[in-house]
Fold this protein.
Amino acid sequence: RSPLPAKPFVTEHCTGGCRITAFFCGTIFSILRIPETLGGLPVREIGEDVFKGNQIIREVFLPKNLRIIRSAAFMNSSVQRVYFASGLQVIERGAFQESHLKSAILPNTVLELGAYAFADTPLERLHLSEGVMDVGERPSEDCCFQWAQQRVKNS
């Protein structure tokens, strides 16, 4: 494993901190730990398409400051395991669609799960908390999502 490049992340300001808008791997490694802060600002969002198509990273550790994972952030990537930190509130449309994600244990802070968020993945296990207020259309083909969607509608 080689170290990260000096500046692997490109960011922009967003509400309460920064949003990661691009990632430059530059080297081969399979585990990524996204830092709590970048440029002195808390990491609040992972932007659209940031890790889309990345075939190197297998595991991702998300920071506790993270609030939103934007659309297609990890779409069609080789990510198999994500360590979701408490504080995450929104996973947008297709965020992990067509990835290699096998298990997702979402923290109690997640309130919204976008359409197709985990569609076309080998997802074997999903843990949703009672706090999820909105489950988008067909977040996955898995039957557990049908149950989750019905549960949210009945709340």
Q: What stands out?
A: Confidence is low (pLDDT under 50) at residues 1-5, 146-155.
